[in-house]
TrEMBL record:
Notes concerning its domains: Consists of three domains; the N-terminal catalytic domain, the editing domain and the C-terminal C-Ala domain. The editing domain removes incorrectly charged amino acids, while the C-Ala domain, along with tRNA(Ala), serves as a bridge to cooperatively bring together the editing and aminoacylation centers thus stimulating deacylation of misacylated tRNAs.
Range covered out of full length: 5 to 473 of 882
Cofactor: Zn(2+)
Main enzyme class: ligase
Main location: cytoplasm
Protein name: Alanine--tRNA ligase
Functional description taken from the UniProt entry: Catalyzes the attachment of alanine to tRNA(Ala) in a two-step reaction: alanine is first activated by ATP to form Ala-AMP and then transferred to the acceptor end of tRNA(Ala). Also edits incorrectly charged Ser-tRNA(Ala) and Gly-tRNA(Ala) via its editing domain.
Keyword field contains RNA-binding: yes
Lineage: Bacteria, Bacillati, Chloroflexota, Ktedonobacteria, Ktedonobacterales
Species assigned in the record: Dictyobacter formicarum
Amino acid sequence: TTLTGTEIRARFLDFFASKDHVKMPSSSLVPHNDPTVLLTTAGMQQMIPYFLGRETPPAARMTSAQKCFRTTDIDKVGNQRTLTFFEMLGNFSVGDYFKREAIAYAWEFLTKVVNLPADRLHPTVHPEDDEAARYWHEIAGYADEAIVRLDENWWGPPGASGPCGPDSEIYYDRGVEYGCGTADCKPGCECERFLEIWNLVFMQFYQDLDGTRTPLPRRNIDTGMGLERLTMVLQGKESVFDTDLLRTIIDRFALITETPYGQSAKTDTSLRVIADHGRALVFLAADGVLPSNEGRGYIFRRILRRAVRHGKLLGLDKPFLAEATNTVIDLLGEHYTELKTQRERIIEVLSQEEKKFSQTLNTGLNLLNELLADLQQQHKKVIPGEEVFRLYDTHGFPVELTQEIAAEHGFSVDTSGFEESMQRQQERSRAGASNAFSQAQDDRALTEILKREGTTEFLGYTGLVSSSK
Ligand code: ATP
Ligand code: MG
Ligand code: MG
Ligand code: MG
């Protein structure tokens, strides 16, 4: 019988509990006491004070399913494996067990608990980590040649001092039919054949600012495995979106938009984007992130606006994100109870922002289309920075959205010109002008446009508006 995503999460946590790990709740998506990142991106984040010896951990062995959000992955959403919000399963050792046990536990879980076929699993190690390669040989029987050595298998503080070390990533071979067919298609290849499922990090050095590494007196283990990816493999699905953790959301949107999933690559991408972004927004709102023009609030806004645009691409003209909320809560509310207790608040935050943006989206899209048509006539392929800034500042168009739409039409964006306009604006507002980013401004801008242009008729955003003024 096939395990559900919920059952897989439980199997993982129970397995590590049976190995004396204390189950830790997921921490919030808003990092606690960590100014270096806007949102939680990995299970180890809440463990950092323990790894650094600054705080005493509840136990030396811990396990968790952590809510994660990765802004860096936004543009990849739509492929088979990438989400912005996902759950990361992890086991952690603070100065307790190390490399051998971490590999043995991972192997036992994958091959004995969830019964993945060993011949589909491919461990990789860092080129200098002979020790890890030896354990993979001793524990799982891999010959040295069968273990791919990858330079990128290294975890460390980027450009700073701190603990670091090699890691060992486990890939699942989906089969040659998913491969790119090149001679060096192997684990680590960008194509869809080898799916990275689990990363085992061996924190064994301390790195100085000058790059000198010294062995840590107390070594740590930090591992992370994407629940959706593991579920995709165990349920034999084509993508993370086809697992029970996400497919219900897709189906819900397919129904509302009357767009069958699987109809075309283009509509599937939009369905995947709104399913992923909708789910992410529900979790972000539950953790108290509110839309704004700065920091994590801007990430929220950007995600929501991107979702709304893809909703429009599917022909949706009514608010739809509240729909996602109930579906997401039905799916994940048992485990993440904050979703249930905050249902009303989440719906309110999402609906309000969605309504606000829908009003400006059509106008903004029209302006952008006209702009592109003008540039086209002048045989220009770059949108001037100040125009991009105007769309952002006056119409609430995230730069990334302008960039994305521009790219769809073969245009690029003058980003440094945009930055300059942004800077000038900031200087102006520092000099005492009103807050340019407030909602009042958005509303005022909208009123101005309506006055200037009359109520604009929506002409469609997929093609360029051919008639220009
Ligand atoms: P990728 O190479 O696919 O971007 P990563 O190397 O950035 O993944 P890690 O930082 O090693 O990922 O995180 C540990 C695990 O979390 C990965 O092995 C994968 O299973 C999962 N994971 C990472 N990013 C994503 C994502 N955007 N969506 C779904 N799962 C993810
Ligand atoms: Mg990544
Ligand atoms: Mg990777
Ligand atoms: Mg990785």
